[in-house]
Amino acid sequence: MAIRIIRIDDDPILRKKSKPVTVFDEKLKVLVDDMVETMHHADGVGLAAPQIGILKQVIVLDLYDDEGPMALINPRIIDKKGKQIEEEGCLSLPGRHGMVERPYEVTVQYEDVTGDSYELTGEELLSRVLCHEIDHLNGILYIDKQLEDTEKIAE
Ligand code: NI
After folding, report:
1. What is the pLDDT of residues 121-133, one digit of tens each?
2. pTM of this prediction?
3. How many domains does the chain have?
4. Can you give the CATH number for the domain in which 60 is found?
5. 88 an active-site residue?
6. In which band, very low, low, confident or very high, does the pLDDT at 10 lie, cut at 50, 70 and 90?
7. From ligand 1's centre to the CA of 35, what distance in Å?
8. Which domain holds residue 61?
9. Residue 7 maps to a domain
10. Does the residue 3 lie in any domain?
C-alpha cells in the first residue's frame, strides 16, 4: 500500500471526467487499497480516484462506523429522496468549507473490486459523501453547488 499525492485547488485533472472501469484485476485492488490509505492519512471520509490523478470511476469512503472502509467501482445514482443542507469540505480544496444542498437519501448501483454488482442506499452523511464523491467522477466540485454567501476560508 502507498499514500498517493492528493491533487488540489485548480489542478485541471479535478475537472475531467473519469472513465468506467472494465477490468477488475490486481491493479484495481492496489488502487483501492492506496486510495483507502490516502483517505485515512488525510482524515477524510471519502476520496475519488481523480483526486489522486487517476481518471477512473472509483470512489472510497469511510464514515468511521461499524461498516469500515468501502470501495465503489462505477457508482451511479439510481434514486434520490428528500433534501438536506449541511456544511461540506473537500480534501482537494484544503481550508475551505461551504453549505451544499444534497438529497437526504440516495440509492447507488456499483460494482465491487471483483466486478460483482450491488446497490447501496444511504441517508444523511452517507448520502452526502456518495453524492460528493460521484460528482468528482464528473469533474464537479462542491464549490460548484455551494449556496451563495456560505463560503468559509480558514485563516
Ligand atoms: Ni472532495
Report:
1. 999 999 999 999 9
2. 0.96
3. 1
4. 3.90.45.10
5. no
6. very high
7. 13
8. 12-153
9. no
10. no
